[in-house]
Fold:
Amino acid sequence: MDRNARLKEVVRAAKEHPVYREKFKEVHPEEVTLENLGELPLTTREEWVAYLKENPRPPAGASLMHLTPSPLMGWMPEYLSQEDLRYQTEALAEHYRRLGLTGKRVLVAFSYHVFAGGWLFHQALWRAGNLVFPHGPGEAARIAEIGQAYGFDVLVTNPSFALKVGQAGGRFALLLAGGEPFTSVPGFREKVEAVLGGVALDAYGTSELGIVAGERLEKDGLWEIPEMAVLEVLDPETLKPVPDGEKGELVVTALSRTLMPMVRFRTGDLAIAERREGLTVLPRGVFGRTDQMVKVKGVKLYPTELAPILGGFGLDPKGFQVVLERKLEGTDKLVLRLKAEKVPPGLMEAIQRATGLKVDEVELVGELEGGLVVDRRF
Amino acid sequence: MDRNARLKEVVRAAKEHPVYREKFKEVHPEEVTLENLGELPLTTREEWVAYLKENPRPPAGASLMHLTPSPLMGWMPEYLSQEDLRYQTEALAEHYRRLGLTGKRVLVAFSYHVFAGGWLFHQALWRAGNLVFPHGPGEAARIAEIGQAYGFDVLVTNPSFALKVGQAGGRFALLLAGGEPFTSVPGFREKVEAVLGGVALDAYGTSELGIVAGERLEKDGLWEIPEMAVLEVLDPETLKPVPDGEKGELVVTALSRTLMPMVRFRTGDLAIAERREGLTVLPRGVFGRTDQMVKVKGVKLYPTELAPILGGFGLDPKGFQVVLERKLEGTDKLVLRLKAEKVPPGLMEAIQRATGLKVDEVELVGELEGGLVVDRRF
Structure:
């Protein structure tokens, strides 16, 4: 496929859309390429929410609607045109064909109701030539039984539910996971694979964007799906690209939608980019949020990044707080408050590896009060 | 479309299928037409269940699977090929286009999980050029709210849930109903239309067959959907066609499926046929079951037919029993045992009109014991 041609089409649609019209005034779609895409203005979820609050009704040409729970507006609607849906189905099918997924029996345990989740996987896997069974969420024991009775090869669901299916006796040669942190939680994949008896692959997507990155059988990071999106990782402060291997905010241009175009959409998700074979790869997946970044000792700390690390050490991923204090000599002091009875061996080293910061002090507590970050430095 | 050509295709597929192979030995698909279809052998749900119990795994070429609860085997699987699904989507879309359903906003409140219900409506309405929102079942108040906020025109669900949506404040210009007795229950449509503030249309289908009959805006019975099926009404004893206007068993040949061909499938449902404009119409819809037929005073009585009549009079549709006794002079005595405090005026006349039989005696009881029919004549 010609990604540049498709990109121009998406930018052309964006230029006509009220969310972009003003800021794309000087943009000439025919000149936009994968190389200079970074010169276009960024777009935030807040901009979309402001627009949709004023214009809740479906736009002309809308053919499929979903709603996503949104802290900003209750439910946020997403609309695809018939053409968008056709494009997306074929584009994502190509990704599954590359994974060798054709002629398989696939059970989808994401919801098809209200949310886009089930549809995204279903349509593409169907189109790639698989038998798809839209099971919907829940009922781990029934899924285990159906999997056996009808000989299903592939399970599509979030990894924690996959664990339950495995514990109920379900065995699947392949798990296509999504919907929650998976490979960014150390040890999680190994646990799921052991119980399901197969290979588990991660993917990343949102309802606004579709599925934009997925693992290969080599399990070497989340690869940009070239037909679906262009990925960038930017410094959330300077909004410039971070060097490969450095943390930043994942910014996505969806190639699959023109009715609600998503051009340089700031996901707020934390990732590291690498370039391989001309594609962007997220070697550590998506592992935190950028919107609560704090500077500690001159280093950018993304506290949510600690959640999957704690999870990997068997702790409650939400059971922590970062406390920042000023040492007498004026330098920052990083205190980690943990809802735990003891500090698991290796945890501090893992945090230092991930964040580049040494924790100065650990406080073990029974309860936590306040937000993720308590900043007492100023 | 050429229905005869499509019929030949379906019969050709059936001839190759294990369920039909033996009994279709002498059948020459190229000679089968709408006129001589009645010469082919009938097929029962029991035959399919026997086959599927032995062969539960999806057949080659299966691309979409659903399960239906089956008293005979727990869950009965249905399989469609990619081609079947494409054909069905387009065929049913044609039906909705004839209803003027294009460019509308449609909220589907049937389930998409496990069952075929939601899919059947969704795919066709989407293909006909409507915006479809796959809401799924339940949450009447949320549906009322979403209907208002996003300007939905059409609600797709079963009529009793539609009532709840209306009671929660939902207003829809059109209801596409299905899934339970509707227009066969006197007064039900009027009640639903009053509360929803729009027009309500009935449809008939099963998961094995798809949607095979639907109402027109004229509300003059369930019309055979020519692209989807061929309908017949047979005497359940002689298995010969009953004259137009007489009760019998609805037998359906689905034109929409070749992977699990349904040729002259005995639904066990009770209907009356009329011929209009070259199509079969079920003027009273589907209003009972044929499998509990008893002969009373030489007349075929289908006791389940009484359920929608009782419902229309505000009684519990399951709160009755037919008791048959022998009068001293040797003739049959028909006793209706009713779980009610009094006999609603007009009920006996309605029963006589529907069944052609006069109830000799009514017994009002608090509780019912035993089955639908208590036959004490022999």
Observations:
- Chain B has three domains: 3-80+207-288, 84-201, 292-375.
